[in-house]
Each structure stands twice: as C-alpha cells, then as structure tokens.
Write a structure and sequence with these properties.
single chain; 200 residues; alpha+beta; eight-stranded antiparallel sheet; 3 helices
C-alpha cells in the first residue's frame, strides 16, 4: 500500500454495523484489516489488530468481569478502552455474543483522514509514525476513557468495510507474556504503517 498524502481521501466502503462483530473474534479480526476507522472524522485504514478470546489468559476477561472490563461481557459492537501501563489508552472492539467477553485490539492505522488534527495531537509530522501503535493511534484520534462503552456504529465512531483486496499477514501477538504462541495478530503484509513488521 502506497504512502498517503494530505490530499489522499480513499473512498469509504459500506458502514459496519454492530452485527458485524457478532462473530468469533478470530474471524472479525482479519476482516477488520483494510477497513477504515474514524473518530469524529479523523482516522484511517486499519493495518494491524490483535484478537483476544476469553478462553486464553492474555485476555483481560480471562478471570471474569471487573469494573474495568465489564463492557467486554456485554453485547458486541462496543468500544472497550483501557489504560496500558498507566500511560497510554488502548481501544478494542467487543466481539461475539453477550457474555463471551472477547475483543479485538486496534494496533495501527494508515492515516487518511484528518492528518492535521493527528499531527497536532501527536506533536510530529511523520505520517508513518502517527498511528503505528495502539497508544499512538488513540492519541492521534483523541480517544480516551470517555469513549469506553460507546457503540461502534454511531458518532463519534464510524467504521467502513475495506474496498480493496489485500494480503492479510498473521503472527504472534506483541507485548504479552501469556499465550504468546497464538498467531492472533493480523495486518496488511508490507504496510509501512505497522507497529512491527510481520515475519516474511
């Protein structure tokens, strides 16, 4: 995928509704690659995600509901936002039937909409570094705990299906110490906007 410019505004696919997320998280995650994520009109193409299933210990829901993760146990199609290492916000999309408590972590975007706002929020110009990590993209899109529990198919969120064929790469998840062998990280192979390249 070629680098984008300030004037690049790819056409948007059909809007993704909450029903899109009412499936196995390991099916939703690769289907999100190439989709467009916008928050108040700012965002871009999802190039990297990770799936987290309630049956494996890396998932926040593995040990049951808490005040922080309760939204994961609700119906699919809502945002789960949490603070990582006490520093960065991370945004997840809740998937599967109510009670399943599985979610997709959004790891990286290719910026396409609202670059000026992203650069202002991130205090940098390099388009490749604006959203190349889960904490970076939430800062660029202005996502905070105020977005936790919000529906993904209503403002300020807007999600649109991908409009082009892509090659989805898979690999192990990043920055975890449990269930490290599971190949539940997905991304656009060769993208210059990933948080970390996939093995060739």
């Amino acid at each position: 995928m070629a680098p984008v410019s300030k004037t690049s505004t790819p056409r948007l696919g059909k809007a993704l509704k909450r029903g899109f997320f009412d499936r196995d998280v390991r099916e939703v995650a690769p289907d999100l690659i190439g989709a467009t994520m916008l928050v108040d009109g700012v965002g871009g193409i999802i190039v990297e995600v990770e799936a987290y299933h309630h049956t494996e210990p890396a998932a926040h829901s593995y040990n049951g509901p808490t005040p922080r993760n309760r939204i994961m146990f609700g119906p699919p199609g809502f945002a789960y936002v949490y603070r990582s290492y006490g520093i960065h916000w991370c945004v997840n999309f809740v998937c599967e039937a109510e009670g399943s408590a599985s979610a997709v972590l959004i790891r990286a975007l290719e910026p396409t909409h609202g670059l000026a706002a992203m650069r202002r929020r991130r205090h940098l110009q390099d388009v490749h570094a604006l959203c190349s990590g889960p904490g970076k993209l939430t800062e660029a899109l202005g996502i905070t705990i105020a977005h936790n529990t919000l529906p993904l198919d209503r403002p300020p969120f807007a999600l649109h299906a991908r409009t082009e064929d892509i090659e989805v790469a898979t690999g192990i998840r990043i920055g975890i110490t449990k269930a490290v062998e599971l190949p539940w990280r997905y991304g656009i192979r060769g993208s210059k906007f990933l948080s970390k390249p996939f093995p060739k």
